[in-house]
Amino acid sequence: MVRSLTTAALTLTVLLPAAGCTTAPSPDASPAVRMSAGVAERPGNLLRGRATVHTKGDVRGTLYFDLGPPAYFRPPPGDMALEWIESYGTALSIEGGSFLGSRSSSPTLVVRLVIGNDSFTSAPGQCLIAVRTARPEEVRGRFTCRGLRGEGKTIDARGTFSARR
After folding, report:
1. Which pLDDT does position 82 carry in this prediction?
2. What is d(CA 112, CA 13) in angstroms, rounded to the nearest whole number?
3. Which DSSP state fits 58?
4. What is the pLDDT of residue 43?
5. Which regions of the chain are under pLDDT 70?
6. What is the pLDDT of residue 7?
7. What is the dihedral of CA 154, 62, 50, 122, to 10 degrees?
8. From CA 54, how far away is CA 42, in angstroms rounded?
């Protein structure tokens, strides 16, 4: 069930923006919008970025990702919904309240790694996320997760991430 929900969520994340669907801006969002290659550039939208993830345990390897749409970041005390995508259904996402410094994963700060048919989602305290740059036009950091559980598999993962306008 988790796999199908994650796959559906990733499919929606990728297909809705491509179909021209958007979410309503927050009441305090700036009305300034400009178009670039068909992507609305609103404050908070990030367009380019990379992530690298090293895994060990039941799934071993090094993965390289490009930032996928949509990617949203508002500096603290805002929020972030960032997703990096690699081919063959592999993705990394970090979602929750934005911050500068280090925080542990929690119910409101989640690291999710999908590798093919396997989905690994952080539990509270399972990951440490360190954000070293948190500006409206850029976010950068790293993360370390221990004992991420998927369907019958367990991995450790660490990596770096960046996203910018």
Report:
1. 97
2. 14
3. S
4. 57
5. 1-43
6. 36
7. 10
8. 32
C-alpha separations of 14 from 19, 118, 143 in Å? 9, 18, 23
Q: Give the residues across from 159 on adjacent strands.
A: 53, 143
Q: What is the pLDDT of residue 88?
A: 75
Q: What is the pLDDT of residue 11?
A: 32
- Strand 61-67 relative to strand 48-57: parallel, antiparallel, unpaired? antiparallel
pLDDT in tens, 107-143: 999 999 999 899 999 999 999 999 999 999 999 999 9
Q: Give dist(CA 143, CA 128) in Å, integer.
A: 6
Domain boundaries, the chain: 2-16+42-164
Q: Alpha-carbon distance 17 to 104, whole Å?
A: 30
- Spatial CA neighbour of 92 closest among 3, 158, 12: 158
Measured in whole angstroms, the distance separating CA 98 from the mean position of its chain's CA atoms is 12
Q: Which CATH architecture is the domain 2-16+42-164 placed in?
A: Beta Barrel (2.40)
Cβ atoms of residues 90 and 63 within 8 Å: yes
Report the distance separating Cα 131 and Cα 161, nearest Å. 9
